[in-house]
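Invent a record, attention on tokens:
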Amino acid sequence: MSNVSDFSVGVVHELTITAAKAGFTPDEFGALAKKPELLRQFRQVLLGHASVQVVEHIIDCDAQPFVPDGWSVEEHQKGGTWSWDASKAYLYKSPEQLKGSIEGNKLREKLRKISTPVLNANVLDYLLANPHLIPEEWKGKYVFFWGTVYRYSSGHLYVRCLCWNDGRWSWSGFWLDLGWDCLGPAAVLAS
């Protein structure tokens, strides 16, 4: 077993430079330094006794979506199973949203006519369960998942969205009779 004194400042400095090149943030690198068991596992990989396996995040877009109390599903567009890839999720804004706003019912009709499918609430709920997968650039927006439209007990139609509030991701819902502006893009599959 090595002693702390066996490590030179130069080797530690080289490790931090390499970690930065590999995409580590200072917070991630600091967290790694506090996890000796994880470092032992990395050592096993380095010695050829173990391997790293990338986790594939598969979302079942055909499953029944989560239904909040007092709500029912009005429409749920199934999308098969999908492996989450943030580069394949695009935030769509209609021309009306870019100029001002558009009523939700009219936006719903426009979204039916675009060439790329909208993502449904199963994706929203998967991302809420795995917030580390949510792109940083989605913060400050209300990202809507139009593939699932709900009806509230009052009879009004709603679409759920992903939003960043109080330092964490959560969901909310907007009434289709309201106006959608540029802060309310639709999550769609990139073509």
Q: What stands out?
A: The chain has six helices and ten strands. The chain has two domains: 4-46, 58-189. Residues 58-189 form one domain. The CA atoms of residues 97 and 188 lie 16 Å apart.
